[in-house]
């Protein structure tokens, strides 16, 4: 199968696409794959290291721009569609998979113009603008959350789950022994979480020496947050800019403090890890809050809105959970019960069906 994967920008959009591509290569070694994204997105850094091919188009996001800003971007949008048409003409995919992010829009529109069937994978409980706009032309709309179905009215939605990076579906139960707190705010970090965690360290004094904290900050905050750990008497070497082996990090974790992106939720549920979720308040349509509620109302996570985030409240929540292993195990079990292993295979099955129909 010749598959083109369009989108990216953030890890939440990219990593499910990577999982899908790697699974296709595993079961169909003769398959051909191409990613299309932007030079500014995380795909430009991650895909070359993975040996996955990438073509880029010149496009920026529309979210947060006024009408004047959107109008000013019209020439760039037209240019990106022409760039996408050229890439499609050269690669000649049998199916295009849109994974969200602003790079997906021009590619899917170009696929529509050229008559190439495309599938949309919606990771979130509430879909983004690109997917809502282009869904009417999609051959299939694959959902990670059943809740997202209410945004689509075209009868082609299929609940597949969210493809996961290698190792996630093999995550062991919450370990015995020394406890580990895993903290991250997405692939580029989250300043609000970074600052709140450092400020919360005094509320975790009793765990000093017995609690390991693995904290992904992103590159911009790294040295400042390491200094905060150092001044509070905690090991600054546990603060890192990026965690390559996330499956290994989850395997060690007893509790997670994180944002509420769709990929994070899929990983938490696959790994069966309890979490304190702090949704990014500026996410389009506040979809991260919707995502977090999907876990919190089932008892698998705690929802802590960023506007209510204080050092004391975060510290107390972490403290209380670490003191209650039975609750951690219960939350972890509920999280795992919500996971949907095998999502990549289900999406690839739909891709094959689309190719067979065309």
Question: How is this fold's topology laid out?
Answer:
Blueprint lengths: L1 E5 L4 H17 L4 E6 L5 H8 L3 E3 L10 H6 L1 H18 L3 E4 L5 H11 L3 E5 L6 H6 L5 E4 L13 E3 L19 E5 L7 H10 L10 E6 L5 H11 L6 E2 L5 H7 L2 E4 L3 H10 L3 E3 L9 H10 L4 E3 L7 H12 L2 H13 L5 H15 L1
Parallel strand pairs: 1-2, 1-4, 2-3, 4-5, 5-6, 6-7, 8-9, 8-11, 9-10, 11-12, 12-13
Helix pairs in contact: 1-14, 4-5, 7-8, 7-12, 10-13
Description:
By secondary structure, the protein is an alpha/beta fold. It is built from 14 helices and 13 strands. The strands form 2 sheets. A 7-stranded parallel β-sheet has the order 3-2-1-4-5-6-7, with helices on both faces. Helix 7 packs parallel to helix 8, helix 7 packs across helix 12 and helix 10 packs across helix 13. It is globular.
Average of the residue pLDDT scores = 92
Gyration radius from CA atoms, angstroms: 21 Å
How is the largest sheet built, in terms of strand order? 3-2-1-4-5-6-7
Poorly predicted spans: none
Number of DSSP helices?
14
Q: End-to-end distance, in Å?
A: 13 Å
Total E-strand runs: 13
* Domain module count: 2
- Biggest sheet character: 7 strands, parallel
By CATH reckoning, the class of the largest domain would read Alpha Beta
Q: What name does CATH use for the topology of the largest domain?
A: Rossmann fold
The CATH architecture of the largest domain can be given as 3-Layer(aba) Sandwich
**Coarse structural class:** alpha/beta
Question: What's the quick description here?
Answer:
With 358 residues, the chain is of the alpha/beta class. The chain is built from 14 helices and 13 strands. The strands form 2 sheets. The chain has a 7-stranded parallel beta sheet with strand order 3-2-1-4-5-6-7, sandwiched between helices.
